[in-house]
Amino acid sequence: MATYWFCVKHHRVEETPGDVCPPIDRLGPFPTEAEAERALEKARERNEEWDNDPNWSDETDWTGLPKRRDSE
């Protein structure tokens, strides 16, 4: 069964088994080629969701670590 990756260096979908770029240059694995093609878009969507998550804050606690906001 094939597994698909998105190479961020070459901006293309790669399939394993086969000749693929090193792990540092890949996003995935993805079950389909179509999902691998959306890798960068999906990463942007997730980053946006995490940046706007009301349960997290960039403020730090007394240890210097980011602190979680308490849910009401």
Notes on the structure:
This protein is α+β, with helices and mostly antiparallel strands and 72 residues long. The chain has a domain at 1-47. 25% of the residues lie in helices and 32% in strands. It has 2 helices and 5 strands. It has helices at residues 33-37, 39-51; strands spanning 3-7, 12-16, 26-30, 56-60, 66-68. Strands 2-1-3 form a 3-stranded antiparallel sheet. It has a two-stranded antiparallel sheet with strand order 4-5. It is elongated. It starts with a strand and ends with a strand.
Fraction in helix: 25-40%
Order of helices and strands: EEEHHEE
Task: Report low-confidence residues grouped into runs of 5 or more.
Answer: none
How far apart are the termini? 46 Å
Rg computed from alpha carbons, rounded to a whole number of angstroms: 17 Å
Q: Label the overall shape.
A: elongated
Number of helices: 2
What is the multimeric organization of the chains shown?
A: single chain
Total beta strands: 5
Strand order of the largest sheet: 2-1-3
- Please state the average pLDDT score: 86
Strand proportion, as a percent range, falls in 25-35%
| Estimated structural class | alpha+beta
For the sheet with most strands, the description reads: 3 strands, antiparallel
Helices and strands, with pairings:
Layout lengths: L2 E5 L4 E5 L9 E5 L2 H5 L1 H13 L4 E5 L5 E3 L4
Antiparallel strand pairs: 1-2, 1-3, 4-5
